[in-house]
Amino acid sequence: MASVERSEEQKKKVVVIGGGVGGSFLAYNIQHCADVVLIDQKEYFEVPWANLRSMVDPSFAARSVINHIDYLTKVKVIVSSAVNITENEVLTADGQTFAYDYLVVATGHEESVPKTRTERLSWYQAEFEKISSANSVLIVGGGPTGVELASEIAYDFPNKKVKLVHRGPRLLEYISTRASEKALEWLTSKKVEVILDQSINLKSMQDGAIQTSAGVTIHADCHFICTGKPMGSSWLRSTVLKDRMDICGRLMVDENLRVRGFKKVFAIGDITDINELKVGYLVQKHAIMTAKNLKMLMMGRNESKMATYKPGFPFAVVSLGRKEALAHLPLFTLIGCIPGMIKSRDLFVGKTRKQLGLKPNLA
Ligand SMILES: Cc1cc2nc3c(=O)[nH]c(=O)nc-3n(C[C@H](O)[C@H](O)[C@H](O)COP(=O)(O)OP(=O)(O)OC[C@H]3O[C@@H](n4cnc5c(N)ncnc54)[C@H](O)[C@@H]3O)c2cc1C
């Protein structure tokens, strides 16, 4: 693909909406061969698998929250929300309009996070202080985020009383029962109290006491809501793509990851309706394949030559504190430290930074 570099006038306009794993990797990979605009609600990329560690160790965030302009040296970065898409333009909340030859939608999940890196680092510091000054912590939600956060706190602050309340019958319901059992065993061994089959109405919280749906009163100095986030697609409902969303708000894509019925509009990442686990390493595969396809199209090659996507292998890793993780594959579930597969999150953050052309910065 070396010959794709073009003079400024020849370059096609590619607009990428969303600066998470998918959008950032894609923009990075095509920045030298297209006139790329990245529209993101925030000025930085953040390694998502470092979020929970950063809450117990804010120095971690300094390595995993990276300003877009530090690695997207050739990209025009617009810090605003996309609010509308037409057949050839994207409109942002601050009133700007960007024409495109190709558009890539990568708005993943909706999350309200600070706009600037400085504010994001202060947010982590405040979360850390909240956890360190509490004797008891309540975590609501037993999916990967709730389990990982409970394990980070239990590992770094072994004397705190940590309770995790989950509405379902088992933790990590998106993977096997074996994985749920292993996670429960690990948390219980670290003295985390796991309450299953009960939900919490946060509005009922008074003076740090809260009732579960079964009438159990929980006292907690602080709490964290780790329930699922909505898709980052509600804004698409008034755009040309409104009829290309499934009932969960995901964009329906074809085998080339183009939005069905749209030749110039691609969608990648968690926002797509691809039947696979919604995980970052697969989102990176979407981005890399789409970058190749875009480069090919921009060179004028026939679209029938585009690469096609096959749903990814269902492999999930859930971190358990600093040293261990749970790895789930269809046939087995492992817990422990397996060289090359199970992390150190530091290694994963380092790898992500390297993939974005930055120093791994593992110090
Ligand atoms: C706590 C946590 C831990 C995880 N751990 C792992 C792990 O260990 N391994 C793994 O493989 N995966 C992990 N994942 C999953 C992985 O992070 C996601 O699959 C991945 O982030 C999805 O990437 P994305 O680009 O589709 O969306 P996102 O990363 O959600 O990015 C969406 C981006 O779009 C922006 N955006 C949204 N709406 C708009 C708009 N209207 N205009 C402009 N910008 C907009 C947002 O600001 C955001 O930057 C984890 C996720 C979380 C939350």
From TrEMBL:
Gene Ontology cellular component terms for the protein in this record: cytoplasm
Pfam families recorded: Pyr_redox_2 (PF07992)
SUPFAM superfamilies: FAD/NAD(P)-binding domain
GO MF, one example: flavin adenine dinucleotide binding
FAD/NAD(P)-binding domain segment(s): 12-287
Top-level division of the source organism's lineage: Eukaryota
Gene3D superfamilies from the UniProt entry: 3.50.50.100
Purpose of the protein: Putative FAD-dependent oxidoreductase.
Protein name (Swiss-Prot/TrEMBL): FAD/NAD(P)-binding domain-containing protein
Organism: Acer yangbiense
